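EI: anyone free to look at a 293-residue chain?
SC: sure, send it
EI:
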Amino acid sequence: MKKILLLSLAALGTAAMLGHRYKTPEPSLLSPECYVSCFNGDIREQFRQEAGTMAFAAMHETPRYYQLENPTGKNIHFTAADGSTAMGYEIKSKTKSNKWVFVIQEWWGLNDYIKRESETLFKELDHVNVIALDLYDGKVAATPDSAMKLVRAAQTDRLENIIKGAIAYAGKDARIYTIGWCFGGMWSLQASILAGKQAAGCVMYYGRPENNMEKLKNLNCDVIGFFGNQDRSPSPELVTKFESDMQAAGKKLTAHKYEANHGFANPSNPSFNKAATEDAHAKAIAFLKQHME
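SC: here you go
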């Protein structure tokens, strides 16, 4: 009898622990205050921490399968700043051009959807070279959990070395324009900062804003950003702070805000907003053309 009682108590204890475990809510997204105080001061590392949470993954539905038909570009290799090999998808201008558009992937990786966006930019802009950077070194995620693993593994130093290598590949006379979405939206801004005086225009879709004033002061180009008022990453509060920071740094930011959620420009996302996407795309192309004159 005593043995049965002990076994019953053990079973009840196990059930209680499991019940607590499965009732524990998933980690929430970082608060605006945490972007200043949590982890370290590097916004890129803070994003890696947040992108590794289930709360962030929940904003991204598994993308629909898409295969690019009749691509005009080609996969290339170039030397990263640390001497290693980096990769990208390049579409070269038929005539010599010093205008380079760096297309930066979402957290899924350099998939055919991003290559399609590169093809669209090449067709709509005149005499440009387009290169979609492969920040995951050939790896592509097909599900949110695999994307979490890839973004966690994407070390900041490696990403910087790839971007610096692409800048060197474009050449010292290149005028560099950057565009990206989500993970790529954040790195679009970072790439323009890294490009120094060669930076000529930055387009960022719902990417994490930089909050380091010294870095923003070193930005040498105008920025256009597209954000969702229903987004939690970045939240409207962070976007408002970004506007204030850019003004304080003496830089020009044109921010367009839509009644839309995170990932509104991606057709595979449940939050896809066709009207907002079309409006943002038209404004992005107009911005790039204006800065290419």
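EI: Residues 34 and 46 are 9 Å apart (CA to CA).
SC: 👍
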